[in-house]
Amino acid sequence: AAAVVAPLVLIRNVAKLSPVNVLGGLLMLLGLALTFVAIGSSLEESGMAPIEAVTHNPDGWLVCLGIVCFAFESIGLVLPIYDSCRDPASFRT
Asked: Whole-angstrom Cα distance, residue 5 to residue 23?
């Protein structure tokens, strides 16, 4: 997967990445829909879990928080600022 995504770093004009952005959004919606379908089919087969069931792993919440922070770090702000610079070559990364 990294070999497919890595060349996208070489694209300097953010507007050219809009098809990739749309594809990413569609894949996220597809993943969300498939998750709800899997949950629904699991509920249909076995019903609701007992009340004493653990619904999450309390040991992994820091990992989840780290992934969320990394995903939403500030890429949505940095790329438009870079694109609107008068001299993008002087933009410090």
From this structure: 13
